[in-house]
Amino acid sequence: MIGIPEPQIPNPEPIPQPPVPETVPAPIPQPVPGPVPEPIPESVPETVPAPIPQTVPAPIPQTIPEPI
Q1: What's residue 68's pLDDT?
Q2: Rounded to whole angstroms, how far apart are CA atoms 44 and 31?
Q3: For residues 10 and 18, what is the distance between their CA atoms, to the nearest angstrom?
Q4: Cα within 13 Å of Cα(53), Cβ side
Q5: Whole-structure pTM over 0.70, yes or no?
Q6: Residue 43: predicted pLDDT
Q7: For the segment 7-61, what is each residue's pLDDT rounded down to a tens digit?
Q8: CA 64, CA 39: separation in Å to the nearest integer?
Q9: Long-range contacts made by residues 3-7, C-beta under 8 angstroms, separation at least 24?
Q10: Radius of gyration of the chain (CA)
């Protein structure tokens, strides 16, 4: 007898393979050169600190001895 090959039945339920996450290295943030800061116009008043008021000591009254 001639052996009849059994029909190959494909697997009706393929086992779902979980997607393997690729280890993609995180992109290193490159410092983006920003716009060159414009020079500050001289019209901008500088914040000059207010002069600290000096506490002038009051003159001590001298007790002048009266001539006897």
Answers
A1: 73
A2: 30
A3: 21
A4: 3
A5: no
A6: 67
A7: 777 767 777 777 877 777 778 887 777 777 777 667 656 677 778 877 877 787 7
A8: 64
A9: none
A10: 47
Provide the CA 27 distance to its chain's centre, in angstroms.
Answer: 17
Burial 3-20 (b: 16+ CB within 10 A, else e): eeeeeeeeeeeeeeeeee
Q: Residue for token digits 């410092």?
A: 31
d(C-alpha 46, C-alpha 35), whole Å: 24
Q: How confident is the model at residue 6 (pLDDT cuts 50, 70, 90)?
A: confident
Eight-class DSSP state of 2: P
The DSSP result for 9-60, as a single string, is ---SSPPPPPPPPP-PPPPPPP----PPPPPPPTTSPP-PPPPPPP-PPPPP
Give me 68's structure tokens.
Answer: 């006897």
